[in-house]
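Lecture 7 notes. Example A: sequence first, then its structure tokens.
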Amino acid sequence: MQTALAIQFSDIILQNPFIRDLSYIWEQMELDNCWLVAGCLAQTIWNNHFGLPVNHGISDLDIVYFDADDTSALSEKRNAERIRTMLSHIPVWIDVKNEARVHLWYKEKFGYPISPYRSVEDAIDTFPTTATAIGIKPGKHGSEVYAPFGLSDLINGIVRPNKRQITADIYEAKVEKWLKHWPCLTIIPWNAE
């Protein structure tokens, strides 16, 4: 996606020093189909939109990759520890997940099973809101952006449920948490659509 909105999105994202530092070591991470996704991206955009400090409310960076050949928890843990060491100067949690293994633990955490993802993009398609269903990674000609619902909701501070996989309770818990940091978000209620 190389639209004007995608370029605007990428420019704002790289103003965040946490994300900029991550981009400097991207190739060294050596993870298959690796993307920076979800919350930290949306929150950086919201901070820009509402005139807040660039890292306001950001508690983690979500790095995801896809390795269907090794879905062991140990491999994922080793990758996470290695990358956290590389980014140890960043004062937020670095969350690293292999999307090829999410179905192995999802039922225990959320109470219902899901089918295995086929790719990181397949996983992003199920993220809880249209504004957080987003990923970015460096590309040969600038940043590559994946946003299955587009960027309009995100850029405009609108939170809308993506009902493909989550429940109303999951959505409402996320909204409640986000409103504490970004009270000016426009929230689309679960039952509105």
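Example B, a different protein, same format:
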Amino acid sequence: MTNKVMIATKNKGKASEFATLFSQFGLEVSTLLDIENHPDIEETGNTFEENARIKAETLSLELNEMVLADDSGLIVDELDGAPGIYSARYAGVEKNDEANIDKLLYEMRDVPENKRTARFYCALALAIPGEETIFVSGKCEGKILTERHGVNGFGYDPIFFASEVGKSMAELTNKEKNKISHRSEALKNLEPILRDLFIQK
């Protein structure tokens, strides 16, 4: 087992979050941004877990190294779970955070505050050559705001009010966000496994 882990993402914001969270384990983190012209891995699953598995196992087989993949998104109760696994492309094929936010705000325009409940959900898949893929998940509960608040973060952060802290995700610093985010919770659930793999050897 090496001390290297490939994070299966080209999203700079997400990559930064993972790098911050992984530093405590002394792991050398790389991402798809470090592989020139790597093609996108098609996400054909019907759940967050299936998509995470596809990305992790495909890349692990290709590189013959440990790969962590996530599939995460926003689940809105009033919209029957949408945008869900289609969160990144909610407004169209091209990923566009602003267009996605605009569409969601429009879809929720007549929904009263008590029915605007939502959560960010993250499924992590850790693929290790020769081993069974490991799955963990995390979530962050909140509600959908009626307009943007804050300038930090990415994705739906400006319109997601995080119940635990009483602010939008975009009003939090990276450090504050990492304490409560769905990816942070998922990684905390992965922590005992990582400790067993890398620290207690």
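Note on Example B: Helices lie at 12-22, 48-63, 97-107, 174-180, 182-199. The chain has a mean pLDDT of 90.
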